[in-house]
């Protein structure tokens, strides 16, 4: 029995509310159970120096967690003067994932920065950030197309992410914190809406896993991503 009472292949309740930030070109608030992330997409008419005069655009991301997003207060990283390694790793993952769903030549020489701010954390914050970040990104692209700034839609496909793991020896979908903290194996799966994989992160957390276990978790992830893509499309 999962702590939440969910079935092994059951997602947490997912909701996505769009247009939550007045000034951003794209924004949404995604809730996956008790994990809530505010995602905004901001457009700038510039690119990093290494892309100058290439005709290619860029999508990048920043990630942060509010001090009381968890069960105890964490210091703001700004107060320490530097970002932690976990933060840097997650925001690079978000950026890589979102870029996989965009034709950067159709985007043109501009940059879209997706900010993902965790308001409340209960496991799976990076997956919620990617899934919600995609919605904010697509809304920003729609803003660009509506204004005539770009003529061709640069979207290749929806990007969504979900966690899977081995909890009490069973493959489970969409781990919350209680499961994540006790899982023998933990994985994050980032996929396009056609099933192609962008990135898979899997590691044993005091346990090991077989090829059969991995295949079972991948099947669960594909099911979860299908549900998340449906939620993205409904929100948009």
How is this structure best described in words?
The protein is α+β, with helices and mostly antiparallel strands and 236 residues long. The chain has one domain: GHMP Kinase, N-terminal domain (Ribosomal Protein S5, domain 2). Helices cover 32% and strands 29% of the residues. It has 6 helices and 9 strands, in the order ββββαααβαββαββα. The strands form 2 sheets. It has a 5-stranded mixed β-sheet. The longest helix has 25 residues, at 211-235. It is globular, with a radius of gyration of 18 Å. It starts with 13 loop residues before the first strand and ends with a helix.
CATH superfamily: GHMP Kinase, N-terminal domain
How big is the Rg?
18 Å
For the record, give the distance between the C-alpha atoms at the N and C termini, rounded to a whole number: 35 Å
Helix content range: 25-40%
Shape: globular
User: Which strand-content bin applies to the residues?
Assistant: 25-35%
In the CATH hierarchy, what is the class?
Answer: Alpha Beta
pLDDT < 50 stretches: none
Helix/strand order, N-terminal first: EEEEHHHEHEEHEEH
What's the number of structural domains? 1
Which architecture per CATH?
2-Layer Sandwich
| Main sheet characteristics | 5 strands, mixed
Structural class by helix and strand composition? alpha+beta
How many DSSP E strands? 9
The name of the CATH topology is Ribosomal Protein S5, domain 2
Family: Belongs to the RNase PH family.
Catalytic activity: tRNA(n+1) + phosphate = tRNA(n) + a ribonucleoside 5'-diphosphate
Binding site for phosphate: 86, 124-126
Keywords: Nucleotidyltransferase, RNA-binding, rRNA processing, Transferase, tRNA processing, tRNA-binding
């Amino acid at each position: 029995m999962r702590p939440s009472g969910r079935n092994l292949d059951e997602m947490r309740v997912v909701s996505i509310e769009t247009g939550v930030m007045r000034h951003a070109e794209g924004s949404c608030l995604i809730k996956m159970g008790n994990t809530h992330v505010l995602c905004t997409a901001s457009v700038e008419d510039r690119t990093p120096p290494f892309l100058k005069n290439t005709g290619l655009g860029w999508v990048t991301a920043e990630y942060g967690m509010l001090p009381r997003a968890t069960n105890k207060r964490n210091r703001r990283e700004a107060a320490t003067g530097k970002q932690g390694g976990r933060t840097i790793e997650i925001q690079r993952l978000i950026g890589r994932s979102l870029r996989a769903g965009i034709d950067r030549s159709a985007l043109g020489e501009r940059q879209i920065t997706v900010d993902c701010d965790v308001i409340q954390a209960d496991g799976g914050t990076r997956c919620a950030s990617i899934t919600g970040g995609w919605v904010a990104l697509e809304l920003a692209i729609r803003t660009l197309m509506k204004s005539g700034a770009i003529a061709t839609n640069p979207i290749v496909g929806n990007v969504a992410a979900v966690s899977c793991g081995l909890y009490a020896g069973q493959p489970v979908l969409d781990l919350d914190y209680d499961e994540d903290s006790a899982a023998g194996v933990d994985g994050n799966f980032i996929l396009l809406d056609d099933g192609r994989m962008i990135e898979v992160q899997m590691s044993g957390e005091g346990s090991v896993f077989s090829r059969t276990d991995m295949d079972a978790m991948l099947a669960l992830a594909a099911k979860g991503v299908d549900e998340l893509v449906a939620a993205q499309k409904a929100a948009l």
